[in-house]
Amino acid sequence: MIYLIDASVYVFRAYYSQLPGMVDRERRPVHAVFGFARFLGDLVEKTRPAFVAVAFDQRLATSYRNAIYPPYKANREPAPTDLAAQFDYCRDLCRHLGLATFVDPHYEADDLIGTLSCLMRGQGVRSAFITRDKDLAQLVRDGDLYWDFGSRGPLGYGDVHRHFGILPERFADFLALTGDTSDNIPGVPGVGPKTAAALMRAFSSIDDLYGQLGRVGSLGLRGGRELRQRLLEHRDAVYLARRLTQIVCDMPLAVGPGDLRPRTPDLAALGTLYDQLGFGPLLRRQGERLAARAARP
Fold first, then answer.
1. C-alpha span between 65 and 76 (Å, rounded)
2. Which long-range contacts (CB under 8 A, 24 or more apart) does 141-150 make?
3. DSSP 190-233
4. What single DSSP character describes residue 2?
5. Could you tell me how far CA 130 lies from the centroid of its own chain?
6. Distances in whole angstroms, Cα of residue 25 to Cα of each of 88, 210, 247, 267
7. Confidence at 154, pLDDT banded by 50, 70, 90
């Protein structure tokens, strides 16, 4: 199994959950780095992954999604200035721990994770999606896990279906119908989660939905005739939304399974980084344990 870590959401969680006050040599805050380091070390120590990759979002709004829809995520406030600098430390941390680390100026972490998952699925390797982001649920297939590590246990394919009420394969289409306020993606007016879920139970995709739009009125949904008309009027918007909600799984990544095996942590580089950050012995000892385990035959 490959563990695919949606790093940015855990850096944000650490930033808002850890008590501020930790600073590096230049008196800059580093509490998010500390919280992320604990999360990451605990995950690797507990799971002992055969394959692992850590994906970060690029800070700049240069995603291809912004190119096709400029308002995409325009509702989000910029990251706090004292957090932006901590992301650089977090990426350095991952590399020093020997973990394959990815970031791209045009694709999001979700797309990196989707592409790596499909690459490894072609090699017969299942995926554990380490995330708090519901969007990644669309990638889960039989044998995979969706896991918000540190908050709840892992969810398998059937668990994801029961938890969200939507088959993973139909999740991107579901979001295209409802919209996604967190990403500033508008949906079809009047189509909420319950209606969208009912449509996704009745149709296998939005292509199937629009191919049989006349059936909508016979589904027993409230206002079925008006719903059919709204779906028709907003057809182009729904297809645009699906381009935004659907995770890319065929990025041009020059990477193979061998590149995704964890390497022995670089204890010297970790020690230098922890000295700069002002971290104590807790994380150093964990790094030593991980290095010792990696050295065993």
1. 15
2. 141/168, 144/117, 145/1, 149/39, 149/42, 149/43, 150/39, 150/42, 150/43
3. T--HHHHHHHHHHSSSHHHHHHTGGGGGGS--TTHHHHHHHHHH
4. E
5. 7
6. 15, 59, 40, 20
7. very high
Q: Cβ contacts of residue 211 below 8 Å, gap of 6+?
A: none
Three-state secondary structure along 139-186? HCCCCCEEECCCCCCCECHHHHHHHHCCCHHHHHHHHHHHCEHHHCEC
Report the percent of the chain where pLDDT is more than 70. Answer: 98
Q: Which uninterrupted H or E stretch holds 274?
A: helix 267-277
Here the tokens at position 277 are 């950050």
Round to whole Å and give the CA distance between 123 and 130. 20
H or E stretch including 54?
strand 51-55
Q: 268-297: per-residue pLDDT in tens? A: 999 999 999 999 899 999 999 998 888 776
Q: Is 129 helix (H, G, I), strand (E, B) or coil?
A: strand
Residue that is written with structure tokens 């605990």 in the block: 42
Contact criterion met (CB below 8 Å) for 210 and 235: yes
Say if residues 34 and 18 touch (Cβ distance below 8 Å).
yes
Domains in the chain, ordered, with CATH?
2-166+248-295 (3.40.50.1010), 168-245 (1.10.150.20)
In terms of pTM, does the model score above 0.85? yes
Structure tokens at 66: 């912004």
Distances in Å between the Cα of 215 and the Cα atoms of 1, 98, 123, 187 are 42, 54, 40, 20
Amino acid letter for position 270: L
